[in-house]
Amino acid sequence: MASTRDNLLALHKTLVSISCVTGNEAPCSDALKAYLSEHGWTVETQATGPGRENVYAYLGSHRKTRVVLNSHLDVVPPYIDFSEDAENVYGRGSSDAKGPMAAQIIAAQELVQESVIKEGDVGLLYVTGEEVDHIGMIKANDLDIQPEAMIVGEPTENVLATGHKGAIKFTLTVEGLAAHSGYPHLGTSANTHLTRILNRLLDLSLPSSPILGSTTLNIGQIKGGVASNVIPAKAVADVMIRVATSVDEVWHLVQQAVESYANAQTGKGEVQVPKISLDKTNWFEPVHCHVVPSFTTKAMSYNTDIGAWKHPLPAGAYLYGPGSILVAHGENEFVSKQQLVESVEGYKRLITSVLAGKGKPAE
């Protein structure tokens, strides 16, 4: 009989060896459907877009389970193939999030084999699009399942998260007037105004939380202009804020900063007053998780699919898994084999503790 380690590493290798960058999750969902069906799970799929499917599995015919184990199928680009040495597994998704996914599945299967869980106790939900727009979890709200609790698998280094930050994604656009750069008074530089506004945003005093820490702002992309000898007519910045308090509070500060700058441009004598627009494209509130005894706990600075689940979870949301977020999107993404194996026992303790009603809100 194969050991936990053998079963886990074999499944993990299968999953990491498949390229499933966001938008192309089908190869991974197909492999997962086949594996779970072969191991006795009832498997359903849910379309989330052309060629994209969530995978939902449960024991027998009782599809509404008390606890749902969840992670995401997609990975960030570029795909990096599987490799390993004696201590670690490398490759895209090895940590985020094929490690947690494989460990969850092995943990659930061992609890079934040990007669610890039964039909109606645990379901498995693996979704598309977490790395971009959370479309898989958004669609999963329509599955007509009402779990008491959800255990989400992300790289936490086998620490149980007390919560994680929310997020605001927005686009800042400035439209000016093109002109020859030798005659700047005949134009309005969109780039100049954009950089001034961004500096105001960087100087904001953003709120913090005693549990989740500081709210932080990242200017992810800046695009503007066509050539160095042309006054740029349009400039665009994509910005993401990791929110520690509330979306409304932080967004109000952003709006105030942008509006005060825009209002101050009237009457400054430019040939054209810049047109400034602010578009909030995606946002999720911070998440406060539940915890159970005997686990080390810590708040996480990233966000997950938990915020996209819109139904009540009376027994709480839990966030746990092997691997480190610090390497998750890098060129040397990896997970320790030892940490993978240890996470199986962690998931088993977590599942049984939640089913026994031992979870409580983190403080």
Automatic annotation (TrEMBL):
Belongs to the peptidase M20A family. Its cofactor is Zn(2+). One of its GO terms (molecular function) is hydrolase activity. SUPFAM superfamilies: Bacterial exopeptidase dimerisation domain (SSF55031), Zn-dependent exopeptidases (SSF53187). InterPro entries: Bact_exopeptidase_dim_dom, Peptidase_M20, Peptidase_M20_dimer, Peptidase_M20A. PANTHER family: ACETYLORNITHINE DEACETYLASE (PTHR43808), PEPTIDASE M20 DIMERISATION DOMAIN-CONTAINING PROTEIN (PTHR43808:SF8). Coiled coil: none annotated. It comes from Bifiguratus adelaidae. Keywords: Hydrolase, Metal-binding, Zinc. This is Peptidase M20 dimerisation domain-containing protein. Residues 162-261 form the Peptidase M20 dimerisation domain. It comes from the Eukaryota.
